[in-house]
Amino acid sequence: MPDAPPVEECFSVAEHRDLAPPGVQVPGLSLRVDTRLDVATAGWALGQPSGEPVLRAWMRFTDGREPDPLALLTFADALPPTSFAMGNFGWAPTVQLQVLVRALPAPGWCLVEARSSELSGGWVDEDYRIWDSTGRLVAQSRQLARAPR
C-alpha cells in the first residue's frame, strides 16, 4: 500500500466541484462517491499539474454503506483521468475496462491509486490498485481510454 496522508488531510472532490478545470464537467458520480484526493497528486485541481500520471485518493460511498465487490468496480473507474495530472484536461471515454476483485474489502475507506504508463497516439492506459482499510490489496484494474484532446 502506498503512503498516503490521512483522509482528513486530503482534498474533497465534492467540496471543491467549482475547481474543475475549464471545460471539464464534474461527473454526477462524485455525488455518490466520497473521494478525497491525496494533495500530492491533486495539483491539477489547483492549476498546478504534477507532470506525473498518478492519482491517489481515499474513497467510500456517500450514503455510508460499507464497500463490497460492486463498490470496488465503481471505485476502479471513479477517479479523474490520469492525464489531468499531466495538464491534459477533457473527456477521456473508456474503451476497455477490466477489473480483478482479489478479496472482499474490510469496512471503512478504500485507498485507490491510478497510474498511467502510456499516454500517446490519442490513447491513455491506466492501472488501478485498490486497498481496503486494513491495507490489503482487494482489487486491480486496467483501463484503456481515449486521451482528452
Structure description:
The protein is mainly beta and 149 residues long. It has a single domain (7-146), classed as Beta Barrel (Porin), CATH 2.40.160.210. It has 1 helix and 8 strands, in the order βββαβββββ. Strands 1, 2, 3, 4, 5, 6, 7 and 8 form an 8-stranded antiparallel β-sheet that branches. A hairpin with a 2-residue loop joins β6 (119-120) and β7 (123-131). The termini are far apart. The mean pLDDT is 89. InterPro entries: ACOT8-like_C (IPR049450), Acyl-CoA_hotdog (IPR042171), HotDog_dom_sf (IPR029069), Sec_Metab_Biosynth-Assoc (IPR052389).
Short summary:
This protein is mainly β and 149 residues long. Helix content is 5%, strand content 34%.
Keywords:
149 residues, eight-stranded antiparallel beta sheet, Porin, mainly beta, globular, single chain
Overall number of domains: 1
Portion of residues within helices = under 10%
The biggest sheet amounts to: 8 strands, antiparallel
User: So what's the overall shape?
Assistant: globular
What would you report as the Rg, rounded to the nearest angstrom?
A: 14 Å
